[in-house]
Write a structure and sequence with these properties.
This protein is of the alpha/beta class and 664 residues long. It contains 16 helices and 18 strands. It is 40% helix and 15% strand. About 2% of the residues have low confidence. Keywords: Membrane, Transmembrane, Transmembrane helix.
Length: 664
Amino acid sequence: MSQLSWSPTATLRKGLRIFLPISLALTIYLYFFPFFGKCAFPLPPVQHNAPADTGYHAFLETVKLHLSLPSVPVEETDPTSTPTVTPSRPLAPFRLLALGDPQLEGDTSIPTEYLGVFPHVKSLFRHLTFQTSHASLRWRLRQCFHEIVDIFFEDVFNLAESYRKRFDHWGNDYYLAHIYRTLHWWSRPTHVTVLGDLLGSQWVTDDEFYWRAHRFWNRVFKGGERVPDEVAMYPADEYDLTGYLSTSGPANDSSVWTKRIINVAGNHDIGYAGDINTNLTARFEDAFGKINYELRFELPLTNKSLTSTLFDALDNPLSDRLVPELRLVVLNDMNLDTPALSTELQDDTYSFINSVINTASAVQFKGHFTLVLTHVPLYKPDGVCVDSPLFTFHDHDGTLKEQNQLSLAASKGFLEGMLGMSGNKDAPGNGQGRRGIILNGHDHEGCDTWHYINQSFVEVERLVQSEDGEYEIERKQREWEVKRYKQAKKESLIGREDMPGVREVTVRSMMGEFGGNAGLLSVWFDEEEWEWKAEYATCPMGTQHLWWVVHFMDFFVILGAVLLAGAGVAGWFGVDVDRAVVRGLRRMVGGRKYRRRTGERSERQERLRGEGERHRDERGKSRDRGVLKDRTRSKSRRRLERRGVTPDHQLWSEAKKRLDYAKS
């Protein structure tokens, strides 16, 4: 039986030996990327004046959550003995997984949805059936030929692009879902937020909007829940607590709030100030929750002796300590700037901000922390972040069309109003305001900044001569400044008594082209200073191409393994899989002519095989035709050698001819 020159099963086996380890390694990395990236929520320091730990110890404590190691508090560890496990440090009671700008696209980006399937075929049919009017038959035929060309050069490509786009939407949904699901499992957050631009466009129909909302809740954030309307409260002097921040358990998280998604409205959800109307806001609130509300979480005191130090109007009126409380404010800042299309909705936003200010604790007290979640970042001069200040307006009515940041005036009111900071040392609380942090999205590149005002700046007035020769009074006043957070930290601007400030984190987008990023915010309470502290870290997964490559490779490796197993099973039943595959490939590739040549070659091989069998002797030993030929050549060579002719390989043909001629 003749042997094949190529074995498909052997090639498949060799390919699996190469790609199976690569596929396995990439899959492990993809599904455990937080582990390989050492992602973890910042860990509160052991000493109150030390910085938060965002490195090895924070990562180690997260690993121990998944290994179910017993916890040994640091203060209870005996330094003279050798502990059986590594001493555990308590996690922050509030850990927020912050995700920015998923921007789910939909049918508006699919050509067949707004053009139809093969629209030029329909136009061609109308031309051929005289449903359209033309000046002459020549023009009708000319238009028909145009439609035929467009069928091949537009309709076919649009159809292919539509299928590709639908497949891309499906993959992008699960790529974003992978980021949320994996990080939620690994980092164990207590709360989750999406900082605006949940969808890709505000100018979609209601059916398209709710279809994207369905994908949001059932694909990307499957298992998540919107914040109930009865929980999302409007600010009031007499309020009910939303809940308590747990300090018990290894992860001190709440099973209720770990499932809820705190959604912030973005410009691609409800539009900018010149676009927002009641219909856009109503459907957003219906699908994702209210656009303006607050949540209040109280932190129970673990040391009961500290209760006596709290402020009480009767028993302890001189204390400046309040019960530790975290106030989370969800704010729609899309219509803070003017002019706005709907002054009614803008007034609602202003009223909400005023209520936040009026119901906040006095700046002289300690113990309260304000976390503000918005979409559009505060004002920053050109060069601080990637997005520069940008404002455009509609031509038809002059309303605000687009903005990269809030205006300087809106940002100032934001800082001085909601957070109570001031450039005046004589202001209440020395102008330090309330402890807090601001998180937002919109700038897909992300940015981490520190807003501050220099109270030691001396305001001056001087006369300045203008170009026309007149003198004008120039006033240099204290102004809000902003720098990158790392730069401000390097210059020791943070924590100075004469420079009140607040940190603003613009979370980098979780979209694939921006690395699938996520933010990890930890907030904890320092009992010695009686103040809340916060620290922020990031965890990027990688671009969407990695997700696609890994899953495509996994698919083909699994397919190859199944085919190889099937070939092995078929071999047990006597099926020659290699020969069948090669024969099938030859039939597909060669056609009739190749099959005819293959048949002739097979017949010739069968004939030679039969002749070889006839050369078997009585003892059962086979005499191969090649051996007989070698023996014949040996006799001829010996005859040539007797005649003095050397049987060189190159001269053999010519010598053989001379020998034959001599015989004749």
